[in-house]
Amino acid sequence: MVRKDWDTYFMDIAHMVSTRSRCPRRHVGSVLVQGKKLLGTAYNGAPMGVPDCSEDGCMISEEVEVVNVDGVETMVKKQRCIRTIHAEQNLLLFTDRADREGSVVYVTDEPCWTCANMLANSGIIEIVYYRPYPKDTRKVTAMMKQKGIIFRQLDHYNPPPDTTVIS
């Protein structure tokens, strides 16, 4: 058996963590790693003690954003559930700043704009993700470059069976 490389190992863990999510739309998991040491895990979901989407339904908020693509302004409609706390946000809530300094975050999905902003201020030096989130890719990528945070997608990664939910 071939030993997994570190990126695959930690992304597999992020996918396994995502299976704790009860979101019917998307399961997202994240892990915090310093060196080769796992410091924390988190997934998306409602605050503790509050009914989640599988119990009370999603709370969908719609937003419209104007984006400029090759000189053409286009309206982009974004839907998001406001009942859940994102995996990256939970990771930041449940880990210490001292542990985040110089660390890497592995997350199953490319961070949204809000999570990217929070991660950019968290002390981490790298974000590794699997699934793209095209609605925010341009501005998130630009900000990460500006901040000097390594931001990369695992292109040739295959998640463990039964860990991916997308509706």
Structure notes:
- The chain is an alpha/beta fold and 167 residues long.
- It has a domain at 6-45 and 86-153: Cytidine Deaminase, domain 2 (3-Layer(aba) Sandwich).
- The protein has six helices and seven strands, in the order αββαββααβαβαβ.
- It has helices spanning 6-18, 53-56, 87-93, 97-100, 113-120, 137-147; strands spanning 29-34, 37-43, 60-69, 72-81, 104-109, 126-131, 150-153.
- Strands 2-1-5-6-7 form a five-stranded mixed sheet, with helices on both faces. A two-stranded antiparallel sheet has the order 3-4.
- β3 and β4 (72-81) form a beta hairpin.
- The chain is globular and about 50 Å long.
- This is dCMP deaminase.
- Its EC number is 3.5.4.12.
- InterPro entries: APOBEC/CMP_deaminase_Zn-bd, CMP_dCMP_dom, Cytidine_deaminase-like, dCMP_deaminase, dCMP_deaminase-rel, Deoxycytidylate_deaminase_dom.
Topology:
Layout: H1 6-18, E1 29-34, E2 37-43, H2 53-56, E3 60-69, E4 72-81, H3 87-93, H4 97-100, E5 104-109, H5 113-120, E6 126-131, H6 137-147, E7 150-153
Parallel strand pairs: 5-6, 6-7
Antiparallel strand pairs: 1-2, 1-5, 3-4
List keywords for this structure.
dCMP deaminase; alpha/beta; 6 helices; 5-stranded mixed β-sheet; dCMP_deaminase; zinc; 167 residues; Cytidine Deaminase, domain 2
